[in-house]
Design goal:
single chain; alpha/beta; Rossmann fold; 7-stranded mixed β-sheet; 8 helices; globular
């Protein structure tokens, strides 16, 4: 179903706004222009829809437990509650990280599911040393640069209800996995998994058999969409802002771009976009758009203009 922003906004019903302008400011990514109007029009209806989905998943689990109960008291094979898993996908610089953080903040305000965890797939990139060994540093962000087996195992373990599951931690400052540091997830009500390639289908193994992909564990998925030339503009604008802020840190992997002219630095960023990020978007990320439950389509001003919701 294709909906305009106004049509979608009307579906929020009486959902209250639990975030202040200051909280939205803290949650938005560098270069994102999201404001309270965007939260009210786009993300409140989405949080309401997801709340309904979570409740329906719980009711379905209850129906299955009723069916499995063979009258022996405890129930045969009865399932305890398992986390509802949401995938958020889209290009570099399209604003998917802001979308994921907003969803985490809004969904945690619902009393039915206060424990909402967010994990990005950056933590499942191979360390730089391994990428260099595999000659993949120039393809960082492409599907083959991730430990997809570890990512799928992580989400499967959370979905299975394990008491504690850990994930590697990635630092954008040093542009690498942080040795010895782990993110700990303890039985959340909802898990949000954000990343470029989270909607990728499983690839056949060497034996020709199709494996399970991380997307197979999603209960709902969101794809943040925009025209490639708009995303390129946002990517370059974000690079300029990072050059003035985070890149100034002496520990930054990208500090060298503060030592050259802005024109040289932006020329490099444009080259990276056209040789790495745009081909990855075209070849790997955009083709997964049709697998999403919901597509958010942004205009040149970074604001959501239309939405497409998959029918059941």
């Amino acid at each position: 179903m294709d909906l305009s922003r106004a049509e979608w906004s009307a579906l929020r019903d009486r959902t209250p706004l639990p975030l202040s302008a200051e909280e939205v400011e803290r949650l938005r990514g560098l270069g994102d222009v999201i404001d309270l109007d965007e939260v009210v029009d786009v993300y409140l209806p989405l949080s309401r829809l997801l709340n309904l989905y979570v409740a329906a998943a719980g009711a379905l689990r209850g129906a299955l437990n009723t069916f499995l109960d063979d009258g022996r008291g405890e129930g045969y094979g009865a399932q305890a509650g398992t986390p509802f898993v949401i995938g958020v996908a889209g290009s570099v610089a399209v604003g998917k990280s802001t979308t994921a953080r907003l969803l985490q903040a809004l969904l945690a305000r619902w009393p039915e599911h206060p424990r909402v965890e967010l994990v990005t797939t950056d933590g499942f990139l191979y360390p730089n040393a391994e990428l260099e060994r595999r000659d993949l540093m120039a393809r960082k962000g492409f599907p083959e640069s991730y430990d997809r087996r570890a990512l799928t195992r992580f989400v499967a373990d959370v979905k299975a209800g394990k008491e504690e599951v850990t994930a590697p931690v990635y630092s954008h400052l040093v542009y690498d996995i942080v040795p010895g540091e782990r993110l700990v997830v303890r039985r959340p009500d909802i898990l949000i998994v954000e990343g470029l390639n989270v909607l990728q289908p499983a690839l056949p193994g060497k034996d020709g058999l199709t494996r399970v992909s991380v997307a197979d564990y999603f209960d709902f998925s969101v794809y943040v969409d925009a025209r490639s030339r708009d995303i390129e503009d946002w990517y370059l604008a974000r690079f300029r802002k990072l050059r003035e802020t985070a890149f100034q840190d002496p520990a930054s992997f990208f500090r060298r771009f503060t030592q050259i002219s802005e024109e040289e630095a932006v020329d490099y960023a444009r080259m990276v976009w056209r040789t790495v990020n745009e081909p990855n978007l075209r070849q790997n990320v955009a083709p997964t758009r049709g697998r999403a439950t919901l597509v958010l389509r942004k205009g040149p001003d970074h604001k959501v203009q239309r939405l497409s919701l998959r029918k059941l």
